[in-house]
């Protein structure tokens, strides 16, 4: 019976966390959402005072759908890294990354202690790193990712666009989710 309930919950979670292959009707956010290059680099070229502002770096349990994307057990702790990419005092992007401990070795050992260095610098500097196709989601205010992304915003938009993909290096995988904030539209 317990397994049946877990399967139903996972399926329900799966339905609730519908991520799309295309950011339909994403309007002014579209070009930011679909660009496959390093978001950090793109922002560094446009922002006058680009910084990475760590908000939370701690061991935490991934969401059910995140754990299944990474092929880790849901109850297993992973390193959660949440940052804002900012221009001066303007938040541009909220990034939520799940780094399974087993992935933090070899070339990715340093990801444990990135601090305010951008994750993308490591990911995009290694030609052996692969990236799964981007998936997109329009977040509404009741969704956990919306609430995490807007927790530090004075003015909260009605909806937000997010994207996510898995970066792969050999057997290591990390899930990177980016929520695009209104401040990015000024760039
Ligand atoms: C994946 C990238 O790294 C960016 C920087 C992140 C960080 O420092 O935690 C997280 C996600 C990205 O917005 C990128 O630059 O494309």
TrEMBL record:
GO cellular component assignments: cytosol
Keyword Lyase belongs to the record: yes
Domain of life: Bacteria
Sample GO molecular function, one term: chorismate lyase activity
Binding residues annotated for substrate, in chain numbering: 81, 119, 178
Pfam families, per the entry: Chor_lyase (PF04345)
Protein name: Probable chorismate pyruvate-lyase
Organism: Methyloradius palustris
Lineage: Bacteria, Pseudomonadati, Pseudomonadota, Betaproteobacteria, Nitrosomonadales
Encoding gene (name): ubiC
């Amino acid at each position: 019976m317990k397994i049946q309930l877990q399967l139903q919950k996972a399926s329900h979670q799966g339905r609730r966390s519908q991520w799309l292959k295309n950011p339909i009707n994403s309007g002014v956010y579209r070009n930011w959402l679909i660009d496959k290059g390093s978001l950090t680099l793109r922002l560094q070229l446009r922002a006058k005072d680009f910084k990475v502002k760590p908000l939370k770096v701690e061991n935490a349990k991934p969401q059910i759908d995140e754990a299944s994307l990474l092929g880790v057990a849901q109850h297993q702790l992973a390193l959660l890294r949440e940052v804002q990419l900012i221009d001066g005092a303007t938040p541009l992007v909220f990034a939520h990354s799940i780094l399974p401990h087993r992935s933090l070795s070899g070339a990715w050992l340093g990801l444990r202690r990135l601090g305010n260095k951008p994750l993308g610098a490591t990911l995009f500097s290694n030609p052996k790193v692969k990236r799964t196709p981007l998936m997109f989601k329009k977040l509404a205010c009741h969704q956990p990712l919306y609430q995490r992304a807007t927790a530090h915003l004075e003015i909260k938009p009605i909806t937000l666009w997010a994207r996510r993909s898995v970066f792969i290096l050999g057997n290591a995988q990390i899930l990177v989710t980016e929520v695009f904030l209104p401040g990015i539209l000024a760039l």
